[in-house]
Amino acid sequence: MPSLFRTKVSKALADAWRPHDWFELNQAVENHYVHKASVCAEVRPKRVIEIGTRCGYSLVAFAIAAPEARYLCLDGATDSDSFDCLAHWASVVERWVIDASLVVVDTKHVRSLPPADFAHVDGDHSFGGALRDLRLVSHCKTILADDCCNPEVKRAVVQFAAERHRRVDWHHDGLRESAVLT
Question: In the chain, what are the domain boundaries?
């Protein structure tokens, strides 16, 4: 990956990071988001679905990789800091002028999602929740599933890939394991 791309993503993350977030921005975290951005850049999507957006850190990384894309972000707002995080998400979208919409919903209440080229799944980390989220974006050509170091998420990815006859490429970015499903 070119160093200019890495620098752009790193600077964007530093600018977009929520002050006093418990999730601290360090080199391992930065590498994690640079990896996500590089996966998105390879796809060059026009439409992206993100399940589990929190503060919008992945969204910013994706927007560097695919600045012309339209983003649909879903978040269940189940954490104690969710509403502060989602307010921060809104400020990030405005400051970075990202064409993104946010829907606050538990995905168990979602029946279908619109067409997209790329999906990022980082929502419910239970087996059933992760599998449900993957099935919601099964129409996407490329899916990036985060937190596969969680055995429940990894099991959901393996089952989904078997059900849908999808190829899985496993990646460990130094912080977490992810899966790219094509």
Answer: 3-181
